[in-house]
Amino acid sequence: MKFLLVFDFDHTIIDENSDTWIVKCAPERKLPNGLRNSYQPGHWTEYMGRVFVYLGDNGVKEDEMKRTMTTIPFTAGMIDLLGFIGENKELFDCIIVSDSNTVFIDWILKAADFRKVFDEVFTNPAAFSSTGYLTVQHFHAHHCAKCPKNLCKRKVLKEFLDKQLERGVSYTQIIYIGDGGNDLCPVMFLKKNDIAMPRQGYTLEKRISQLAQSLTPVQCSVLVWSSAIDIMSYLKLLIKE
């Protein structure tokens, strides 16, 4: 029997938001106010599309973007945790579900040699156009009112589990590691035996505790982490059992 580890990416695997980090490539490392103020709630992907057009218009090329992205620090303890998972892949399946994009995640994981730790990465598809501009698309369409228009992480997780079941793979336990408001929807899908691991002091932890106070707690167990070493300690206990 295997365990499934589900990771968010921004502020979970890396200690920053990859989408805001790319602004370091912009002239004077900032965006014009008009562009910054054009974001509308639930439409982050469209906003990032405009940011990438602005960078392209200002002559920012792929190699400069890549150099910038690969300087993002990993969260404390994360390099050790991913190394540990890599050494125990026979016990852990490992996926990323993220509102970042394929280009950024690929660059960062490959530069640190962690791409092979993850079985699949579910995120917004991105590519460079023939004119050298980075473009990004919605991951999928969905009908969940709680989630941003481009990505419902619960839907991704449910479809992944269904596909695995068809292949004859089921999991002893799902461990969901995240930090943001859009991680709540998949956490509410987890069952009694599963574990949600929200990052301490971030939105997901606050939302889970609000639910507990309003007497509609999540079904799964909750274990808060501040360093990825906390996650590794839990996984070591799991595989001893």
TrEMBL record:
Keywords: Hydrolase, Magnesium, Metal-binding
Binding site for substrate: 19, 99
Annotated residues for binding of Mg(2+): 8, 10, 179
Keyword Hydrolase: yes
GO MF annotation terms: metal ion binding; phosphatase activity
ATP-binding as UniProt keyword: no
Gene3D superfamilies to which the protein is assigned, alphabetical: HAD superfamily/HAD-like
Cofactors named for this entry: Mg(2+)
InterPro entries, per database record: HAD-like_sf (IPR036412), HAD_hydro_PyrdxlP_Pase-like (IPR006384), HAD_sf (IPR023214), Pase_PHOSPHO-typ (IPR016965)
Active site: residue positions: 8 (nucleophile), 10 (proton donor)
Record family assignment: Belongs to the HAD-like hydrolase superfamily. PHOSPHO family.
Name of the protein this chain belongs to: PHOP2 phosphatase
Organism: Quiscalus mexicanus (Great-tailed grackle)
